[in-house]
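Sequence in, structure out.
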Amino acid sequence: MDALDPILNYIRNCLINEETPIYAETSLFDAKILDSMKLVELIGFLESQFKIRVLPSEVVVENLDSPERIAKYVERKLCH
């Protein structure tokens, strides 16, 4: 499953102004797109959209820093 497109669409439509450029490799933390509240919203989206459970121990920069990393994380979760 390609998780990247739905993740990019969610970020564009719900977390930022649609005119703000965002790419697969954009660092959501460095670009100040994600703060603690938006991170909670993003996790809720991932859990409902992809039917996965995001564990507290998995909420780390390595999994959630960019749309590309988020998509890879989701795809790993879906394979298990």
